[in-house]
């Protein structure tokens, strides 16, 4: 019997998440070969290949990677500013593409990507909103859809992080951090957003020397009136802390805290708190890529978060940044119907 098809992948951008996906695709996901890598920083990609004991072509220009006939699938983990041009080039080359979030820096760029994908006649792109694959969120989504707590009325969320780099600015708190919840909540409650407002409460002293407003409060309302509140705090000092409570007519769904071994020591009973996002969602990343590769390896369209999901998130994020600039002024949102092209996900 013939062996399974080995999917040949090229990765553009070998930073923290890129090197993590490189390891995942070569050590965790079956029937994948990373045949090419590319990073704008000279020798950076080769150094990571050497550290992981891997061999692949190391390109200095992402166009060469995309046009390499030995690359069937393009994974974009470059800087946010480069996502648009890399994704457009990969789609123009007719190659399946995985792009880490955000899909692009603004809504118009996302719409350009959507139109380019439509030219191909089928879905070729998946966006890396990995929480769609986290088992606890999948269970929560199913319980909402099954009406376990009746109609959702409110969502109360927290996204705290202590590991962001010093250059992490105000806009990145929205387009890199809060965008997870912006995407997730639309999927969880299956309702479009009607408005958003963002404001900065009392600021942490740990952000005094940074170009950032931290923390931030994001408040959204959906078309049916569900109220969503997200606390975003990227200079949190105690750990990486994710909370999601969905309050319904009949009860509450509460996202579980990641279980840790409890310690009884020195007259104290305690459990650890995670300190980074990688440990918190590692299994979700694995499941995400197994699903993506499983489809594209069979020449099937990916079924995870789409370019349309990327567009919804980008429109909302654009309005969030405008609201923050205007001291929390409410921004109305209005979305067209999802194109039939993306309806059957």
TrEMBL record:
<feature type="domain" description="Gfo/Idh/MocA-like oxidoreductase C-terminal">
    <location>
        <begin position="141"/>
        <end position="327"/>
    </location>
</feature>
<dbReference type="Pfam" id="PF01408">
    <property type="entry name" value="GFO_IDH_MocA"/>
</dbReference>
<comment type="subunit">
    <text>Homotetramer.</text>
</comment>
<dbReference type="InterPro" id="IPR050424">
    <property type="entry name" value="Gfo-Idh-MocA_inositol_DH"/>
</dbReference>
<comment type="pathway">
    <text>Polyol metabolism; myo-inositol degradation into acetyl-CoA; acetyl-CoA from myo-inositol: step 1/7.</text>
</comment>
<feature type="domain" description="Gfo/Idh/MocA-like oxidoreductase N-terminal">
    <location>
        <begin position="8"/>
        <end position="129"/>
    </location>
</feature>
<dbReference type="GO" id="GO:0050112">
    <property type="term" value="F:inositol 2-dehydrogenase (NAD+) activity"/>
</dbReference>
<dbReference type="InterPro" id="IPR000683">
    <property type="entry name" value="Gfo/Idh/MocA-like_OxRdtase_N"/>
</dbReference>
<dbReference type="InterPro" id="IPR036291">
    <property type="entry name" value="NAD(P)-bd_dom_sf"/>
</dbReference>
<dbReference type="InterPro" id="IPR004104">
    <property type="entry name" value="Gfo/Idh/MocA-like_OxRdtase_C"/>
</dbReference>
<keyword id="KW-0560">Oxidoreductase</keyword>
<dbReference type="GO" id="GO:0000166">
    <property type="term" value="F:nucleotide binding"/>
</dbReference>
<comment type="function">
    <text>Involved in the oxidation of myo-inositol (MI) and D-chiro-inositol (DCI) to 2-keto-myo-inositol (2KMI or 2-inosose) and 1-keto-D-chiro-inositol (1KDCI), respectively.</text>
</comment>
<protein>
    <recommendedName>
        <fullName>Inositol 2-dehydrogenase/D-chiro-inositol 3-dehydrogenase</fullName>
        <ecNumber>1.1.1.18</ecNumber>
        <ecNumber>1.1.1.369</ecNumber>
    </recommendedName>
</protein>
<comment type="similarity">
    <text>Belongs to the Gfo/Idh/MocA family.</text>
</comment>
<dbReference type="Pfam" id="PF02894">
    <property type="entry name" value="GFO_IDH_MocA_C"/>
</dbReference>
<dbReference type="GO" id="GO:0019310">
    <property type="term" value="P:inositol catabolic process"/>
</dbReference>
<dbReference type="InterPro" id="IPR023794">
    <property type="entry name" value="MI/DCI_dehydrogenase"/>
</dbReference>
<keyword id="KW-0520">NAD</keyword>
């Amino acid at each position: 019997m013939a062996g399974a098809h080995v999917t040949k992948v090229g990765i553009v951008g070998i930073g923290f998440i890129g090197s993590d996906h490189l390891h995942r695709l070569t050590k965790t996901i079956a029937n994948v070969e990373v045949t090419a890598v590319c990073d704008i920083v000279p020798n950076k990609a080769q150094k990571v290949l050497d550290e992981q004991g891997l061999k692949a072509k190391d390109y200095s220009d992402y166009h060469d990677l995309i046009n390499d006939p030995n690359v069937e699938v393009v994974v974009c983990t470059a800087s946010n500013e480069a996502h648009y041009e890399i994704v457009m080039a990969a789609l123009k080359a007719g190659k399946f593409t995985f792009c880490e979030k955000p899909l692009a820096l603004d809504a118009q760029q996302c719409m350009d990507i959507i139109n380019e994908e439509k030219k191909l006649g089928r879905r070729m792109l998946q966006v890396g909103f990995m929480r769609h694959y986290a088992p606890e969120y999948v269970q929560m989504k199913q319980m909402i859809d099954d009406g376990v707590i009746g109609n959702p009325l409110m969502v109360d969320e927290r996204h705290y992080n202590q590991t962001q780099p010093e250059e992490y600015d105000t806009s990145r708190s929205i387009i890199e951090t809060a965008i997870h919840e912006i995407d997730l909540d639309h999927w969880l409650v299956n309702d479009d957003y009607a408005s958003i407002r963002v404001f900065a409460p009392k600021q942490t002293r740990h952000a005094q020397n940074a170009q950032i407003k931290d923390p931030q409060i994001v408040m959204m309302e959906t078309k049916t009136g569900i109220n969503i509140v997200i606390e975003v705090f990227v200079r949190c000092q105690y750990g990486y802390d994710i909370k999601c409570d969905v309050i319904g007519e009949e009860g509450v769904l509460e996202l579980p805290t990641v279980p840790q071994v409890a310690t009884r020591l020195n007259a104290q009973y305690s459990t650890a708190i995670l300190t980074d996002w990688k440990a918190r969602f590692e299994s979700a990343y694995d499941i995400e890529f197994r699903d993506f590769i499983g489809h594209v390896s069979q020449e099937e369209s990916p079924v995870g978060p789409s370019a349309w999901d990327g567009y919804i998130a980008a429109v909302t994020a654009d309005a969030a940044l405008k609201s923050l600039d205007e001291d929390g002024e409410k921004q109305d949102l209005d979305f067209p119907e999802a194109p039939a092209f993306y309806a059957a996900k």
